[in-house]
Amino acid sequence: MVSGRGGRPASVRNVARVDALTDAVVTASRLLVAVSARSIASVDDSITLSQFRLLVLLSSRGPMNLSAFTEQLGVLPSTGTRMIDRLVASGLVDRRINPASRREVVIGLTEDGTAVVAKATQRRRREIARIVARMPERGQQALVTVLEQFNEAGGEPPAGDDLPAGGDWI
Predict the structure, then answer these.
(1) What pLDDT score does 160 carry?
(2) Residue 94: beta bridge partners?
């Protein structure tokens, strides 16, 4: 093994760096989950984080069938069906027969669902903006670059993509 600065092998330094970075991201994710949970609860305290994730998915990508959204969310079809049942009962999601394939059911946001996503997203953005505003300017600029790379590596679409997709569903 090749030793570098500090006399530690390069592979040990890389593992330590990845561990430190992972710890920082896990801590930031706790903060972001808390911000998200507060923003959702302020709009409708009966919606879970998983249900809200589905609402955002439908808002950004439009109506979809059960297999498409369960794959996107990484949940079992039975879990997805229960989630849809609850959201349909609350008036946030609607089910329809796919006009292109009468055997397939698609789900999409209702007007109320679109409003919930918009309100919760606005509240989340305001709270995150308050946190970011307390950071030094140099840190703010670096954070944008790093988070864009992190989001791209994780396959997450940009935040502007969680605005309502529009279309004739609503």
Answers:
(1) 63
(2) 108
pLDDT digits (tens, 9 = 90+) for 61-115: 999 999 999 998 999 999 999 999 999 999 999 999 888 888 888 999 999 999 9
pLDDT digits (tens, 9 = 90+) for 17-61: 888 889 999 999 999 999 999 999 999 999 999 999 999 999 999
DSSP 1: -
How far is Cα 70 from Cα 81, in angstroms, rounded to an integer? Answer: 9
Q: How far is CA 23 from the centre of its chain?
A: 20
Distance CA 69, CA 67 (A): 6
What phi and psi, each to the nearest 5 degrees, are found at residue 63? -55, 145
Nearest alpha carbon to residue 117 among 52, 67, 63: 52
pLDDT at 165: 46
CA–CA separation, 62 and 104 (whole Å): 16
